[in-house]
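Input record (one chain):
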Amino acid sequence: MRKIERVGFVIKPHAPDIEKILAELIRYFEKKGMECLLEEKAAQKLKKGEGIPREELPGKVELMVVLGGDGTLLSIAHLTAQKDVPVLGVNMGSLGFLTEVPLDEACLTLDAFLEGEEK
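The corresponding structure, as predicted from the sequence alone:
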């Protein structure tokens, strides 16, 4: 697996507390020295410029974090598969069959993933 230097974020823009959760996860990665790239809707939510078109994001990162439900995850899955980029799908409250990481376990799951990536 490639060393993770850049993390991309894709969101479901109307998910509850999305701005707060997105900002917390960005801080998490930045504390680890990683650059965070936002797709257009995520950048708009945080008022951080225009963002990167969703179709281009997987070619610029080594990990994708999807905050939303199964539909949000599926909208990015085929793009990441073409680039061999791992995806962490964080369930934002609705029933999720594919976004299996509950919000309250996101940082623990990321710690375990990143620890394994470093070995």
